[in-house]
Structures are given as structure tokens and as C-alpha cells.
Amino acid sequence: MTKQKYITLILILGFLTALGPFSIDMYLPGFSAIADDLNTTVNNVSLSLSSYFIGISAGQLLYGPLLDRYGRKRPLYIGLTVYLLASLGCAVTKNIDMFIGLRFIQAVGSCAATVAAMAMVRDLFPVEDSPKVFSLLLLVLGLSPMLAPTIGSYVIAVWGWHTIFIILAIMGFAVLLASRFGLPHTHKPDPSISLKPKPILTGFAKVLTTPQFYTYAVSGAVAFSGLFTYVAGSPLLFMDIFKVSGETYGWIFALMSVSFIGVSQFNSLLLRWYKSEQLVYIGLSLQLIISTAFLIAAINNWLGLYSTIIMLFLYLGCLGLTNPNTAGLALAPFSKNAGSASALLGALQMGMGSLASMAVGILVKDSMVPMVAIMASTTLIGLGILLIGRKNIKEFAQSDSSDTIIAH
Fold first, then answer.
1. What is this structure's pTM?
2. For residue 351, which of 141, 150, 59, 119 has the smallest C-alpha distance?
3. Is 354 left (phi over 0), alpha (psi -120 to 50) or beta?
4. 95 vs 141, which has greater pLDDT?
5. CA quadruple 121, 124, 127, 130: dihedral sign
6. Fold of 3-184+194-407
7. Which residues contact 319 (CB under 8 A, 6 or more apart)?
8. What pLDDT does 399 receive?
9. CB of 122 within 8 A of CB of 335?
10. What is the DSSP letter of 129?
11. Cβ-based neighbours of 405, under 8 Å, separated by 6 or more
């Protein structure tokens, strides 16, 4: 593979994975405007974020078997078309319940891009390169939290929040074109893969019961839900509690992403000297220390705006270390059913994220303590799952001719 082709693939796969997060981040500064326009509350608007996470979680389980059965591209095209139409629907809706429902449908469409991108990483690159590739994807993905809220705040100020979803529809169409002309067919349709419920559930069960998968996928998903906690809670935290403007919030959100993306890129260098397994343990341990200190400070009301930003900056940096490594380790044992494994991994991440974001919408009112408590508790649970699961992991080798996972 030439360097130019490698870069092109990384960019397109990165934009596929960034579509969903861009859809999450870009409208965050508009929560108050949407609430006013739809005659509802900011907390009710935040439920549209939860419905988006639920849609991604459920949708990924749908697309996984489809990507393995029909190849990567056809389900991808269908999903992006659904995303485009739902985005246009969000732009014209006048009802909060309809808005929440359309966000769910929008998510079901966008997650086709996420699952296809993760499966194509497994198709196109050697297993040992997966953590490095995921780190590079996070670099492209980082454009979302760095640019989306800031751009969104200015778009809303000039044209209103409806324009956000028109822009997202245009982005979906652009990604569809890039996928059509820039990505190869990486996986031939496999008629032997059944789409009946029982075989699908059996396939998911096979993936989920693989020790390497459930250890790193579940521990990573639980710990990574701290990011969704931050995303869901940050509009309430900064704009309602600390009373910053929408434009200022956009810049704060962009600053925070520097930590997550910067550390994820530093991870590529660390992999020269450390194994992914070691980096996951180090990242979660640091995350626990930081989130515990954050919680103690929040309970005692020691934090102002700037100190809160510092603590969140450190916390998000830990996620940048753990996420690419847990993803690479979880998917490593799979080839033929990489689509189902990628879907299950994404569903776990988004499922945990939707639960965390719903908890934020219910609990976070006029204090940051509930948000930080969720961050600390999910980190503790994630580290506990890692420590227990590592005892059950054996070293696996995979033959070139089959999916069989052989224990040494």
C-alpha cells in the first residue's frame, strides 16, 4: 500500500467515524435556542442527545450482520441516505417529541458509517497495526469536538439552530460520495451468513464470550462512558452553572478536545515501547486517580471555572490513552465476523454512553457533583472489569485460513 493510498484511506475512514460525533457536538451550543423555539426545557432537549446514543447503540447491532452478509458498501450507502433524510427532518420539525424521534433515526443512519469504518480497519490493516490506525482515526475524529461546537455556536447566532441540521445533511452527502469513489470493496458478500435472529444472536454470543473481547470491550466501554457524561453535561455545566456564552462554550469544548486527541496521538509513540495491554492499565489507573480527586474537590466546592476546565482536561486525556488500545485489543481476534464484532463493540460503547447521558439529564441541575460522580464511578467499574477479565485472557493466535481462535 502506497503512502498516498494509506493517507486517503485514513482520511475517509476518519470522516466516516467523525460523522456521528459531529452530529452530537455541533448542536450543543443551541440547546437553549432549541428549548425556546420548541417551547420546552433544556433538560428535555438533552433527551435528544440520549435518543441519539440509543439509536447508535441499537443501529450498530443491526448493521453488523448486514456488513458481513452484503459487504461493507451497500449497507453503508443505505445508512447514509437515512441519515441525510433524518437530518433534513430535524431542520424543519416544530415539536420536541418529533425532534427526539428524528434524532434517533438520524443516529441509526449515522452508525452505519461508524461500524463500516471499524470493520474496514480490520479488513485493510494488519492486526498489530490496529491500535495505531485507531489513533490516527481519532486524529481526524478530533476535528469534530474541536470545530463542531465553535462552528455551531456561530451558525446558530447568524442563521439559527435549524441550519445546523441542513449542514449535517450536506456532510452526510459528501461522506456518501467519498465512500463511493474513495473506498475499495474490502469484504465480499457472504451468503453463508444468516440474517435470521437465532444465528445473529449466536454470532454475537460467540464474539461476546471471547475473553479478549469482553474484557477490553466492556471495560473500555464503561470507562469511555465518561466522555458521554462530559458531552451531555457540559452545556448545563458551562452555560447554566458557570453562565458562559454559547460562543465561549464552543471554544472551551474545542480546548477540551485537544487533550483527548493529543494523548491519542501520543499513544502511537508510546506503542513503540509499551504493549497496548500495559497502556490500558496505565490509562485507567490515572483516570481513576484524577476522577477521584475531581469528585472530592467538587463535593467540597473547591472548583471554579478554570480549575474545572483543568480537571476535565486531565480526565479526557486519560480517555485518549485507553480508547484506541481497548478498541484494537477487542477486535484483534476477529476477521470473518469483524462486522459483527465492530457492531457489538460500538453498541457497548454507545449503550453505556446513552445510560450515562440519561443519568446526566436527570441528575445534573445546579451542581457538577452528579456529573463528576458518574465519571468517577464508571472509571472504577471499568478498571475492576479489566483486572478481573485479564485473569481469563489467554494468548490467542489466528490462522490465516479461518476464524478459529487458538489458545496457547
1. 0.71
2. 59
3. alpha
4. 95
5. negative
6. Growth Hormone; Chain: A; (1.20.1250)
7. 223, 224, 226, 227, 260, 263, 283, 287
8. 38
9. yes
10. G
11. 210, 333, 396, 398
Q: What tens digit of pLDDT does each residue of 282-296 get? A: 999 999 999 999 999
- What lies within 8 Å, CB to CB, of 202 at 6+ separation is none
pLDDT of residue 211: 83
**Does residue 195 register a pLDDT over 90?**
no
The secondary structure element, H or E, covering residue 146 is: helix 143-159
Least confident of 186-195, 322-331, 375-384: 186-195
Cβ within 8 Å of residue 123, ≥6 positions away? 72, 186, 187, 338
Q: Could you tell me which residues come within 8 angstroms of residue 378 by beta carbon, excluding any fewer than 6 positions away? A: 222, 223, 225, 226, 229, 352, 356
Structural domain spans, the chain:
3-184+194-407
**Distances, alpha carbon 76 to alpha carbons 115, 215, 279, 353, in Å:** 9, 28, 32, 23
* Nearest-angstrom CA–CA distance, 81 and 94: 22
pLDDT of residue 164: 95
pLDDT grade, residue 389 (50/70/90)? Answer: confident
Whether 403 has a pLDDT exceeding 60, the answer reads no
d(CA 9, CA 120): 10
Number of C-beta neighbours around residue 10 at 10 A: 18
Residue type, 139: L
User: CA nearest 224: which of 60, 26, 386, 16?
Assistant: 386
Return the percentage of the chain with pLDDT > 90, whole number: 32
Continuous segment of H or E residues that includes residue 383:
helix 369-389
Type of residue at 6 = Y
Asked if 157 contacts 246 with a C-beta cutoff of 8 angstroms, the reply is: yes
pLDDT digits (tens, 9 = 90+) for 311-342: 999 999 998 888 888 888 888 777 666 667 87
